[in-house]
Amino acid sequence: MKRSVVEHAVFGVLGGLVYMGIEVLWRGRSHPTMLLLGGVCFVMIGRLNERQGCAPPLWAQAVAGAAAVTLLELATGLIVNRWLGWNVWDYSDMPLNFMGQICLPYSLAWLLLSAVAARLEDGLHALADRIWIAVWR
Predict the structure, then answer these.
(1) In degrees rounded to 5, what are phi and psi of residue 29?
(2) What is the end-to-end Cα distance of the chain in Å, rounded?
(3) Element (H or E) spanning 103, and its range?
(4) 103 Cβ partners below 8 Å, 6+ apart?
């Protein structure tokens, strides 16, 4: 079934709220910009297997998701932390960090989180399909 812009927007908000929730649980705080970043990441991870034909295996989605999230986190960090000076996060004390904006330990954590996000997003699409079918019967 073709995915709608509205469906992806709703999933983006849900994904952004989950992203913020993870941050609050992990470090005790979050920032409104993380709603947008988390939403974009969640939808992007979900889109990795929405092309027609065969979907990539979950491990490939997790690797691609982790790489993309890391790059989006770098871009966001350079804007909100470096350019705007909001100091939302600083990974300077983390091992193998780049400019204090990304680091290897969190990039590796995104492997697991991307796999979970891919499955969650698939489940949300299945639920949305069932609701859509039930409404239009």
Answers:
(1) -160, 165
(2) 16
(3) strand 102-103
(4) 91, 94, 95, 96, 97
pLDDT digits (tens, 9 = 90+) for 29-52: 999 999 999 999 999 999 988 766
> How confident is the model at residue 93, as a pLDDT?
97
Residue of 39, 44, 49 whose CA lies nearest to 65: 44
Q: Please list the helix, strand and coil fractions of the chain in percent, rounded to the nearest 5, in that order.
A: 70, 5, 25
What is the number of residues in the chain? 137
pLDDT classification of 55: cutoffs 50, 70, 90:
confident
DSSP annotation string for 53-87? SPPPPHHHHHHHHHHHHHHHHHHHHIIIIIIS---
* Burial tier of 113 (Cβ tally within 10 Å: 0-12, 13-18, 19+): buried
Residue 3 tokens read as 């995915």
The three-class DSSP label of residue 48 is coil
